[in-house]
Write a structure and sequence with these properties.
alpha/beta, Rossmann fold, 41% helix, globular
Length: 247
């Protein structure tokens, strides 16, 4: 099996086009329907009344959930939250992250506006899965931050892809949204898949004593737009942070 540099040489020698696996996946998400709606019902919840729908990915069989409020059209553009599954934060109330609080805040805002969509995507641990996320927690307890822990385990800092999310939004009619996010890369990814993000709506959660370094890392190393005064920018080497322990 030829790998990167060798493939480049072969392509140049024989004047062949060369594309990456990621580009092939993106092409398929843009030109093929790779999700299907398999169930829908009402969901009265503590955050309000929603319509709940389950979608299945035809790529890997994973199920993803959409909570819909009101209609997808109108002005201003409806709110949308693309939320990656976090069992520890969303279900067990972990203080290591801000995920559960972001989920609650997003649903409350959508309910208050009376229109919007909340996607719950099966992308635990920024795409590395639950078991590996907990392995990363072990490394964070030894002093690594979230980025270095992923790298130590052999993963990129963020493995998530938003092609499935974009297809679900399109199927529901939410092709034009105000996105509830602090992550500019999520905006760019959805735009690449044809979703018109007309505005970003901040979804910043106040840090606590446990997750402050986690949030600092998201801002300093992953480019998240966080501005709470309790956060400080980490220096490039992160030497001080390593001594304090992970988050």
């Amino acid at each position: 099996m030829a790998r990167g540099p060798e493939l480049v040489r072969i392509a140049r020698k024989h004047r062949l086009p060369l594309i990456s696996i990621r580009e092939l996946i993106q092409y398929r998400y843009r030109h093929e329907r790779l999700v299907k709606r398999i169930a829908a019902s009402r969901l009265p919840s503590r955050y309000g009344d929603f319509k709940i729908l389950v979608y299945e990915s035809e790529i890997d069989g994973h199920h993803h959930v959409a909570l819909v409020k009101g209609k997808p059209s109108g002005e201003p553009a409806p709110l949308a939250r693309v939320h990656s599954q976090c069992l520890t934060g969303d279900v067990f109330g972990s203080l290591r992250c801000d995920c559960g609080e972001q989920m609650a805040a997003a649903l409350e805002r959508i309910d208050k506006e009376g229109s919007g969509v909340f996607l719950y995507m099966r992308q635990e641990g920024r795409g590395i899965g639950l078991a590996n996320k907990l392995r990363a927690y072990e490394l964070q307890d030894l002093g690594l931050d979230t980025v270095d822990a992923n790298l130590k385990l052999g993963f990129k800092p963020d493995l998530r892809d938003y092609g499935v999310a974009a297809q679900i939004l399109g199927d529901l009619g939410f092709g034009r949204v105000r996105l509830l996010t602090n992550n500019p890369k999520k905006i760019a990814a959805l735009k690449d898949y044809g979703i018109h993000v007309v505005a970003r709506e901040s979804l910043e959660i106040h840090p606590n004593a446990v997750n402050r370094r986690y949030l600092e890392t998201k801002r300093a190393r992953l480019g998240h737009l966080l501005s709470h005064p309790k956060l400080r920018l980490l220096d490039e080497a992160h030497t001080g942070g390593r001594k304090r322990g992970g988050a």
